[in-house]
Design brief:
The structure holds two protein chains of two kinds.
Chain A lengths: L3 E15 L4 E15 L3 E5 L6 H9 L6 E6 L2 E2 H8 L3 E5 L10 H11 L4 H14 L15 H13 L5 E5 L7 H18 L2 E5 L3 H7 L2 E6 L2 E6 L1 H6 L3 E10 L1 H10 L4 E4 L2 E7 L3 H10 L3 E8 L3 H9 L1
Parallel strand pairs in A: 3-8, 3-9, 6-7, 7-8
Antiparallel strand pairs in A: 1-2, 1-4, 4-5, 9-10, 11-13, 11-14, 12-13
Helix pairs in contact in A: 3-4, 4-5
Chain B lengths: L3 H15 L3 H25 L7 H33 L3 H5 L5 H31 L7 H4 L3 H22 L6 H12 L11 H7 L3 H15 L7 H31 L6
Helix pairs in contact in B: 1-5, 2-3, 2-5, 3-5, 3-7, 3-8, 3-10, 5-7, 7-8, 7-11, 10-11
The chains are: A alpha/beta, B mainly alpha.
């Protein structure tokens, strides 16, 4: 049985603005509830303005909820924030580290903030400098780091105290593909070996599909749906059939127009949107119409397709 | 529960850059020098000669040194908060086990350290430039010095509370509010010279009484901790410290309603 370590119940955030005479309200997060289990990687997805950042900010104690409750490890967050945060850490591509401290000093500083004992702190700093490829730049001031180096420092900081929960806001947004791959491997390894739970927001759908055990999709502050990434992707029934046609292209175009199928034509390349269950019919018809082709490929619906679908 | 490790971390985070940043070191050294030269020689000139008005100039210079106790302990609180905002590192810091109380205790400790260093430095400058040894009056003004530092903390906490809520758009208050209190405290001249209504306002704050006590200690060459002024100064300092601490808690909570992530 899974052990829930973060429980969010009926969480709501209403921002108030305007004047006394003309008050305005904006519901950023509207009555959402979900859990994070021990060792689980949960993705929080949604288009811009869906309420992801607002939710993360409430989970970090940076923002007071209007109503609802947050419980970490079975304890109320508002009452036990400081003790709870010893086991919860955070990394985001959108915030920075003290620029006037070196990479190593920054890790030392955060190690002290998390009350790590000197020997353990030194060991963790050394380990994380190596894992995140920061060893060679450990004496460089944080303000002189590139965006990718800063993200690696942020992640090194997040995993420094051996947290039980890590909240990651777009963790690989500024990274080169090879470094992003290393980071993804590291995160999965942390989960597999130490049972770290991770709540992740990302715009990289393939990353989410690869890493997350479960996804919660937000839209307009509400939970639209949740489930395994593949299950969600399967909700989009339209596949894309790509063909490089070398003969009877006009017959194929007449066919797709007759059956009202969406298609894109670029010289001899054609991309046809077709319901998954009708792919076989399409291929049979192509053969029947004696359409000649040099290449054929079928793209199954991905999480990105699902995301685009719900973002409409 | 307050953790010393976290307090020492914040002190480390701000002290390390201070002592290797020539701009911040210059800032610490330059302004006391300018004020001492400007107001010190103005006092000397106003009284004809340096030797003919020994107590007046001595009291003025000692008051300027004491004002720097207030100013530095104020500035280290509000400016270090601003540095976190300018660095866009405050969100990272507040997303840790660090509590507002621990953060403020750290900044107050930094204020104490910087105020102490500046006070010694100002005393040395006075000795070098004016040949006046205010080290000799340290025992006479010693009981008042902690109150000067706490007054600085009060102004720093007040300023920080406003910055927490309004953000860096009002960063100018970091320097503007202490300047206002420089006038109302009578640090550079006696409050008696001000309009009556200004004197009334100044009477509401402990600094006025503390600067009177410093001048009295130099004039009378004695220290009197049982005086009426000392009692009022202590009472007001404790009162305002509690008041601004509650105000800070209130403003941070209000700021959390709209999100501390907006700060940077």
């Amino acid at each position: 049985m899974q052990n829930t370590i973060l429980s969010i119940k009926n969480l709501t955030k209403v921002f108030k603005s305007g004047s006394i005479f003309n008050p305005k309200e904006f519901v950023a997060v509207n009555d959402i509830s979900f859990n994070l289990d021990s060792g689980e990687i949960l993705g929080l997805l949604g288009p811009n303005g869906a309420g992801k950042t607002t939710t993360i900010n409430m989970l970090l104690g940076l923002l007071n909820p209007t109503s609802g409750s947050i419980e970490y490890f079975g304890r109320g967050f508002s009452k036990h924030r400081s003790e709870i945060m010893l086991d919860v850490s955070f990394a985001s591509s959108y915030v920075k580290m003290p620029g006037s401290l070196t990479v190593e000093e920054n890790l030392n500083f955060y190690g002290k903030i998390y009350c790590l004992e000197t020997a353990f702190r030194k060991k963790q700093i050394e380990k994380n400098l190596n894992i995140f490829g920061l060893e060679k730049i450990k004496s460089r001031l944080a303000k002189n780091l590139s965006a990718g180096q800063l993200t690696r420092l942020m992640l090194a900081k997040a995993f420094l105290p051996n947290p039980k929960i890590v909240l990651l806001d777009e963790p690989t947004a500024a990274l080169d593909p090879d470094i992003a791959l290393t980071i993804r491997k590291f995160i999965l390894e942390q989960r597999n070996s130490l049972g770290v739970s991770i709540l992740l927001t990302s715009h990289n759908m393939s990353e989410v599909q690869e890493m997350c055990d479960r996804i919660v999709v937000l839209k307009d502050g509400k939970i639209l749906t949740s489930g395994h990434p593949d299950e969600l992707a399967a909700k989009v029934r339209t596949s894309k059939v790509h063909l490089l046609v070398i003969g009877n292209l006009d017959k194929l175009i007449n066919y797709v127009q007759e059956y009202n199928l969406n298609y894109k034509l670029d010289q001899n390349f054609i991309e046809i949107d077709v319901d998954e269950h009708k792919i076989a019919d399409l291929i049979y018809s192509i053969t029947d119409l004696k359409v000649q082709y040099a290449q054929i490929s079928i793209d199954k619906p991905s999480l990105e397709d699902y995301f685009l679908e719900i973002s409409k | 529960m307050i953790k010393f490790s976290r307090i020492s971390a914040i002190i480390y985070r701000h002290l390390v850059p201070t002592f290797r940043d020539p701009i911040r070191l210059t800032d610490m050294a330059y302004y006391p020098l300018v004020d001492l030269i400007l107001f010190g020689f103005l006092g000397v000139w106003a009284h004809g000669s340096q030797t003919g008005s020994d107590n007046f100039v001595f009291a003025l210079l000692t008051s300027i040194a004491c004002w720097y106790l207030v100013y530095r302990s104020t500035l280290e609180i509000s400016r270090n908060l601003l540095i976190e905002i300018w660095d866009s590192s405050l969100v990272n810091l507040l997303a840790t086990p660090l509590t507002t109380t621990e953060f403020m205790i750290s900044l107050m400790t930094l204020g104490f350290i910087q105020a102490f260093i500046t006070f010694i430095y100002s005393s040395l400058l006075i000795l070098l430039i004016f040949s006046k040894n205010i080290f000799s009056v340290y025992p006479l003004i010693a009981p008042y010095l902690p109150l000067f530092i706490v007054c600085g903390w009060i102004i720093g906490i007040l300023t920080s509370a406003l910055i927490f809520y309004f953000g860096k758009s009002i960063e100018f208050i970091t320097w503007a509010i202490p300047c206002l209190f420089a006038i109302l405290s009578g640090s550079f001249c006696s409050i008696d010279l001000f309009p009556h209504w200004v004197q009334k306002i100044a009477s509401l704050f402990p600094l006025k009484y503390l600067f009177i006590l410093v001048r009295q200690a130099i004039d009378q060459k004695s220290v009197n901790i049982f005086s009426h002024n000392f009692f009022i100064a202590t009472l007001l300092t404790v009162f305002y410290f509690i008041l601004v601490s509650l105000f800070l808690t209130y403003m941070v909570n209000k700021a959390k309603n709209k999100g501390l992530n907006n700060l940077g």
